[in-house]
Automatic annotation (TrEMBL):
Keywords on record: Cell membrane, Membrane, Transferase, Transmembrane, Transmembrane helix
Region (Disordered): 386-418
TM annotation in the entry: 18-36, 88-106, 112-132, 139-159, 165-188, 195-214, 255-273, 307-324
Membrane topology type: Multi-pass membrane protein
One Gene Ontology CC term in the entry: plasma membrane
GO molecular function terms attached to this record: hexosyltransferase activity
Cell compartments where the protein resides: Cell membrane
Family, as annotated: Belongs to the glycosyltransferase 87 family.
Protein name in UniProt: DUF2029 domain-containing protein
Name of one Pfam family that matches: GT87
Length: 418
């Protein structure tokens, strides 16, 4: 057993008591019920998608509404929702969003072999109720929740050397909402061309099939794409946390802000590539590379909203069991502090200024993870238990003991122990 598991991390890995589990479930249920009480049709963002699908069923073009920003394949995915009355969506959507986020958290824990009944699992699930991006995701009913579940699942499959299955998960998520496109670079880094082909083929085939069925599919290119390139409209721009949107609000010229954002994103991609080239064949290699790619995209893409952070946050939180991980540094947690709803921050408390603290969160997490990717962690050398006793097991750079490896690196397939 790792010596590290006898300390604070060992406490997190032990089973949670039933009162703690009940308390975590209670706060999550309370968060869902609050959204149910405040919402009338399953959230504002989900309503845009449902309205587009209903327009399609009525013979119109879903892209007549400029706020429908997804690929044509998402229209077909939204049809089941469009057939439900609003009073049903009011309950189904927040429950579904919470379920997808919790599913992503479970997959994140399994990447590192953490049991779903552990204190870490239960406290992490309950803590989501106090995290502003999670509450906003519930309230909006945004389809980002699909990516929140898909990225950890894809990472888990990659760790288990099931690359093509991971490509299928990414492709299905992109077909619903094209958020995980930057993750495809991981397949490029690894030279997994079959996985990349599957990730591209699924949304492409779905979009072509949907385009043949919907009226005026060309509106996607003449209306939706220009609308996205402009950063949507002034209303959405107030909540956009990308550097290209936040810096101009501070007086930086737009051209300079965009160039700076692209440069920062390029540095992030380089850090991800450098982390992948450090072939230590551990789960941390996959998690850090994949999340660094996504954070780099969030810094430059428009729009970039606060709930996007949940896509990368769950696997990073689960990595706290690994010595030297980004979640072991105080700066990681400092970056998340502004997202605690009970704290009123001077000058950024109004909703119209929330993007500033959201941008600070993205930049802080990206900086911490970039340093972790670019600078190797030195192996941990543990002292002997006593002058005459045997030495404790030394730690590898990523805190994992040696395991059987496949010829291409990473673990052999099979579920990790609890």
């Amino acid at each position: 057993m790792d010596a590290d598991k006898t300390g604070g991390v060992g406490w997190l890995l032990r089973p949670a008591s039933w009162p703690v589990r009940a308390a975590a479930a209670a706060v999550l249920v309370a968060a869902v019920l609050e959204v149910y009480r405040r919402s009338h049709s399953g959230g504002m963002d989900n309503a845009f998608v449902v309205r587009a699908a209903r327009s399609f069923l009525d013979g119109g073009s879903p892209y007549a509404d400029k706020r429908f920003l997804y690929l044509p394949s998402a229209v077909l995915a939204a049809v089941p929702e469009a057939l439900l009355p609003d009073r049903v969506l009011r309950a189904v959507v927040p429950v579904g969003v919470a379920g997808l986020v919790l599913g992503g958290w479970w997959c994140s824990l399994r990447i590192f072999g953490v049991w779903a009944g552990s204190r870490l699992a239960v406290l992490g699930a309950g803590g989501l109720a106090y995290f502003a991006p999670f509450r906003n995701l519930l309230l909006l009913g945004n389809w980002t929740a699909v990516s929140v579940a898909a990225l950890p699942l894809a990472l888990l499959l990659v760790v288990r050397a099931r690359w093509v299955a991971a490509g299928a998960v990414i492709g299905a998520a992109v077909a619903v909402k094209p958020m995980l496109v930057p993750f495809a670079l991981l397949f490029v880094f690894a030279g997994r061309w079959r996985a990349l082909a599957v990730a591209v083929a699924i949304p492409a085939a779905g979009s072509v099939a949907a385009a043949l069925a919907i009226p005026h599919p060309g509106y996607f290119f003449t209306r939706t794409v220009p609308f996205l390139l402009r950063g949507q409209d002034p209303f959405a721009g107030l909540y956009d946390a990308s550097l290209g949107a936040v810096l101009p609000r501070l007086g930086v010229p737009r051209g300079l802000a965009l160039a700076f954002a692209m440069a920062v994103a390029a540095v992030g991609v380089w850090c991800a590539w450098r982390r992948w080239r450090r072939a230590d064949d551990t789960p941390m290699r996959v998690v850090e590379t994949g999340t660094m790619l996504m954070l780099s995209a969030f810094l430059v893409s428009r729009p970039s909203f606060d709930h996007y952070v949940l896509v990368v946050l769950l696997p990073l939180l689960a990595s706290v069991v690994v010595p030297g991980s980004a979640a072991r540094t105080p700066w990681f947690w400092i970056a998340l502090v502004p997202q605690i709803p009970v704290i009123d921050w001077p000058y950024v408390t109004p909703l119209t200024r929330r993007a500033f603290k959201d941008a600070a969160m993205f930049c802080g997490l990206a900086a911490v993870l970039a340093w972790r990717c670019a600078v190797p962690v030195r192996p941990v050398r543990l002292r002997r238990a006593s002058p005459a006793g045997p030495p404790l097991c030394p730690q590898e750079p990523d805190g994992l003991t040696s395991r059987p490896q496949t010829p291409g690196g990473l673990e052999k397939t099979g579920p990790p122990g609890p």
